[in-house]
């Protein structure tokens, strides 16, 4: 419903609020039904005119979720997966043994562990680089051998921002594809395809759903083609498909995406600015702070805010950081991010001994509570 019958165009928040303006043709329901069926009737002449055969390939409940993500990202096609990891690994599993990929030094830990473990055992060759430095990306790309450059921006959990346009230019000049994990930015703040990326991935478990009650992932392609069809085949072959109830909940969550992300971004900036001069705080990592090393790229690439995620290094090392986390009450000590409730986590405890994350770092996912309440809770936890 980018255009209605009068030809008017709508802003993305209007499109999200009405989940594309879907109305059921038969019942006039404005909320779509859930289709639990795993199998579909074959026509008497042995054809499948509906295009539906079996539930490991797709499900009618996906259609609205996929179409809405496609619209918000400005892409050509989207696919829904069982989780963000299922979406991301489907891209790598659609490459061939011997293919070279360039991945960031700082990125979602489980995915980096998969690429450098099982991914390499399956024949991928990965170069791990500092993505905030385009010269390092250029040096790592092997012309005609590098098939994929993986970007995550802002990158979990240090929130460095990658220049998508510059990395895409370098990758495309060498014949490589670019996929951006845009989980923390969301289509509200960054649209990677408009900056030149080929694919955008989300852990829809996070902001897209936004209520910490669905595991799902999405991929969106700037254009369809052979590689996209390979990814589609991978999803069906591996069975990394979302459940229909999750797809339905995801559409419901995405209707409030813009309100949630804007509220969280506003509070996160206030919290970052409050904590930066705090005597118990060593440093604050947040793309919206002018002191942040990649702030200039963030200011150009992110529109309407810098996201709800920040990290804080606490003076006094790991013990002090864990103590601060133990003293909060409104913030919840839990992993994950992008929900309406604020979460705090001692990140290196989650990533384990090989993690590059400083041991004095707390990762904060800002929800939609009153910023003053969140700040007061942090202040009392930091006192002493
Ligand atoms: C959570 C997350 C993932 C993995 O998503 P799941 O839904 O947990 O499988 C990937 N990338 C980022 C940035 C994430 O935060």
How is this fold's topology laid out?
Elements: H1 12-17, H2 62-73, E1 77-81, H3 84-93, E2 100-104, H4 109-121, E3 125-129, H5 134-140, E4 146-152, H6 164-173, E5 177-181, H7 186-189, E6 199-203, E7 217-221, H8 226-238, H9 244-254, H10 257-275, E8 281-285, H11 295-301, E9 309-314, H12 317-327, E10 332-333, E11 343-346, H13 347-351, E12 361-365, H14 371-382
Parallel strand pairs: 2-3, 2-4, 4-5, 5-6, 10-11
Antiparallel strand pairs: 1-7, 6-7, 8-9, 9-12, 11-12
Helix pairs in contact: 2-9, 3-4, 3-8, 12-14
The structure holds pyridoxal-5'-phosphate.
Question: Describe it for me?
Answer:
The chain is of the alpha/beta class. Helices cover 36% and strands 15% of the residues. It is built from 14 helices and 12 strands. The strands form 2 sheets. A 7-stranded mixed beta sheet has the order 1-7-6-5-4-2-3, sandwiched between helices. Helix 6 links the parallel strand 4 and strand 5 (177-181). It binds pyridoxal-5'-phosphate. Pyridoxal-5'-phosphate is lined by residues 83-85, 108, 111, 152, 156, 181, 183-184, 203, 205-206, 215, 217, 337.
